[in-house]
Amino acid sequence: MTRSSLPVAAVTAATAVLLLAACGGGSNGSDKIDASDSPTASATASATTASPTRAAGPGAPSFDLPSDIKVNFDGFDSSDPTKKAALKDATYAATAVVAFTAKTYTKEPAFFKRFWTGEHGAEFADSLISQGKGGSVVTGTFDYYKPVVKKLVTGNLSVQYCEDQRKAYGKDAKTGKVNVTTPSLADFNLWTLTMTKSSTGEWQAYDHTWQNGAKQCQIA
Predict the structure, then answer these.
(1) CB contact set of 41 (below 8 Å; sequence gap of 6+)
(2) Contact 127, 7 (CB under 8 A)
(3) For 8-23+66-217, CATH number?
(4) Which of 28, 98, 150, 170 is such that its CA lies 20 to 30 A from the CA of 104?
(5) Integer angstrom CA distances of residue 41 from 111, 125, 162, 193, 200
(6) Mean pLDDT for the chain?
(7) Where are the domains of the chain?
C-alpha cells in the first residue's frame, strides 16, 4: 500500500453513501495500522485559525453543517489527558469530512484544513472538491463509535473508530433529491487516522486508512 495515492471521495446516486476509499479502494482497505509514523514537514505546520464563529467551548471549531445533517459520537472520551485530547480532535476531523461533503466547495474550507494537514490532507481536500463538482452531496445521520487510541513510538497517535451510515444518503445538490437506500453491511466503515500534534496543541490527521463494509463495526 503506497502513501502516494490518496483516498478519493465518491458520493454518487448509485451508491447513495459517502465512499472515502483508502489507498485507492475502499474494499481493499485494511484495519491494520500500517500508515507511516512520520508526517511530512508540512504536516507539522501550525493549524489554520478557525472561523470567528465557534461551537460551544473555548477554541472549538465551527462547522457549516446544513440542517439536514446530524453527526453523533459515542465513547470518544478517556481518563488519559493525551488520548482525551486526540479523541476530541478526531471528532472534529470526522465532522470536518461530513461538513465538506454536505455542500459543494471551490476551495478547502478552514474547518477542514484545521484538522487535516500535510500533503495528504491537501490532496484529500482536492478530491472532495472534485467530488462536489460532480453535483453529489450527503445528507442524513452519521454515527461514530468504538474509538481506540494507540500511542506510536514517535509520539504520534493513531485513532481508530467505526462509522454507521445506515441513515446517511446521497443527495443531488441541485434538485435536493435524496436517494434512500436499503441498510446493508456497506453502511459500516472503519477509519484509522494517524495524528500528529500541531504547534498550537491540536491533534491533526496527516494520514488515514478506510475500510468499507467493516464487519467489526456492524451493529443491529
Answers:
(1) none
(2) yes
(3) 3.10.450.50
(4) 28
(5) 21, 18, 29, 18, 16
(6) 80
(7) 8-23+66-217
Rg (CA), the chain: 16
Q: Which amino acid, one-letter code, is at 117?
A: T
Instruction: Quickly list H helices, the chain.
Output: 81-102, 110-113, 118-133
Do 211 and 26 meet the contact criterion of CB atoms below 8 Å apart? yes
Residue keyed to cell 483508502: 22
Contact in structure between 51 and 125 (CB atoms under 8 Å)? no
Predicted local distance difference test score (pLDDT) of residue 59: 81
Cell numbers for 95, please give them: 465532522
pLDDT tens for 62-119 read: 998 999 999 999 999 999 999 999 999 999 999 999 999 999 999 999 999 999 999 9
What local confidence, expressed as pLDDT, does residue 184 receive? 97
**Spatial CA neighbour of 133 closest among 97, 170, 174:** 174
Please tell me what DSSP assigns to residue 122. Answer: H
From residue 166, give the alpha-carbon distance in Å to each of 90, 96, 197: 21, 19, 32
Compute how many other C-beta atoms are within 10 angstroms of the C-beta atom of residue 49: 10
Taking the C-alpha atoms of residue 32 and residue 24, their distance in angstroms, rounded to an integer, is 16
Distance (Å, whole) CA 91 – CA 86: 9
Q: How far is CA 39 from CA 13, 76, 91, 127, 129, in A?
A: 35, 24, 20, 20, 23
- Does the pLDDT of residue 43 top 80, yes or no? no
